[in-house]
Amino acid sequence: SGLLSRLQTSAPTIRTLSSSKSFSQNIPSCLWKLGRLNHVAIAVPDLKKAQSLYKDVLGAQVSETVALPEHGVYTVFVELGNTKLELLHPLGEKSPIASFLQKNKTGGMHHICIEVDDIKAAMTELKKKKIRILSEEPKIGAHGKPVIFLHPKDCHGVLVELEQA
């Protein structure tokens, strides 16, 4: 009992989140809200091999390949329990994925996609907050919904896609 009492008296006090200020008290109110993580996009140099890894080796449900000429990519979605992976492969020489793969020969994480409830309100507010948006208007993304991309230099090195929920 001597050791136990010494441990109890010398243990540091730990503040829990429930006893501290709520995180939401520090977040300014917006006219729009962030939603769930929709997907993580991965640029791949060989789409067939990547599809095979997720489908045949890991046993995931993998979509068919879809061409998105407006974005310069082929896409394949890998279904996960709580989100998706988007496999991206260049479509055409001017594809942003082609230039990404020139710098990253084996591929890698390209962007994250987060849903928003009002993409137009998000654009207006983000512009006011000096966050650069990579297009003047939303484009229709792989899910048939409006999307925008935020400049990675304004998002701590991460290319962020916002998709209308």
UniProtKB/TrEMBL annotation:
One of its GO terms (cellular component) is mitochondrion. InterPro entries: Glyas_Bleomycin-R_OHBP_Dase, MeMalonyl-CoA_epimerase, MMCE/EMCE_epimerase, VOC_core. One of its GO terms (molecular function) is methylmalonyl-CoA epimerase activity. Keywords: Cobalt, Isomerase, Metal-binding. PROSITE patterns: VOC. Its EC number is 5.1.99.1. It is an enzyme of class 5 (isomerase). Residues 36-165 form the VOC domain. GO terms for biological process: L-methylmalonyl-CoA metabolic process. Pfam families: Glyoxalase_4 (PF13669). It comes from the Eukaryota. It catalyses: (R)-methylmalonyl-CoA = (S)-methylmalonyl-CoA. Belongs to the methylmalonyl-CoA epimerase family. Methylmalonyl-CoA epimerase involved in propionyl-CoA metabolism. This is Methylmalonyl-CoA epimerase, mitochondrial. It comes from Origma solitaria. The lineage of its organism: Eukaryota, Metazoa, Chordata, Craniata, Vertebrata. The gene is Mcee.
